[in-house]
Amino acid sequence: MERDLEQLNSALNSVKILRSNVRRVFESVSNGLRADHGDDGKESKYILELQELLTTVNNNLRDVENSMSNLTPPPGPFSLGNTTYLSQETTQERQALYGQLVNTYKWTDKIREYSALAGNILAANSFNKTYKTFSTTKRRKTQTSNHNVPPEVIENLITSIDRLFPDVTITTNSPFVPNPVIQGRVLKAIIAFKGLMIEWVVVKAHAESNDLWTESRYKVFRKVTENCHAAMCHFYSPMMPELAVRSFLHWFHSYNTLFSAPCKRCANHLHNNLPPTWRDLRNLEPYHEECK
């Protein structure tokens, strides 16, 4: 396979050189006699120059033929049935359909090949046995959805979490859809809940609005928002939603040292004019985006 690619690359380079020298021939023919040919015998100089260019083109053409002869021919014609007549269309828009159709067929063949390989890999695993084991056992009782809980449950959860962090203030603005605002020493976060699950987080400065759908105008808080979305997905746990919320807020609490803690790897406070905006999901240590 690697040898075929090298031969193909050599053939393409030969074609590129041939096209470049052919262009030089046409430029010489279009320019005709020039001032640099001089006054004496300029016709013979021009003809000699043109002969040298044509000789070079002839040698390049021989190189292209040699490179093409080393290539492995395709296994057979790519049959498209009646669609081959698309190449005989007179309008330029319809002529392009043939090349697009060829690429589509090739892409479909690759999808079919990859699907067959994926099917063989899945068939070799024990998924079918696991499915049979669970299907034969007694069906467990359907659990209550974590999205359909009364607002009081969410408020009680927020109140209990608020007691864990004395240096953080958690307030709710709406009695029906509680979107708590978590205010720390250097930033604040507005969190949207869907039941007991965190659905959205936006981090802003203290002086900015509490609008959930407007991002911060500061780049550092936009970076922290992106990392909060990653942590929100990391701590996501439908089976233990309260633990997921507590774990996320415990991780977010580490941003109280956003502008004071140096990066754990480079030991610098700033990198590309930004503090360490990432907190490790396990040990909560600060890192720059480029150092994590």
Automatic annotation (TrEMBL):
Compartment annotation: Nucleus
A UniProt-annotated Pfam family: Med27
Record-given protein name: Mediator of RNA polymerase II transcription subunit 27
GO cellular component: mediator complex
Similarity remark: Belongs to the Mediator complex subunit 27 family.
Alphabetized InterPro entries for the sequence: Mediator_Med27
Main location: nucleus
Origin species: Aromia moschata
GO biological process: regulation of transcription by RNA polymerase II
Keyword line: Nucleus, Transcription, Transcription regulation
Keyword Transcription regulation: yes
GO molecular function, a single term: transcription coactivator activity
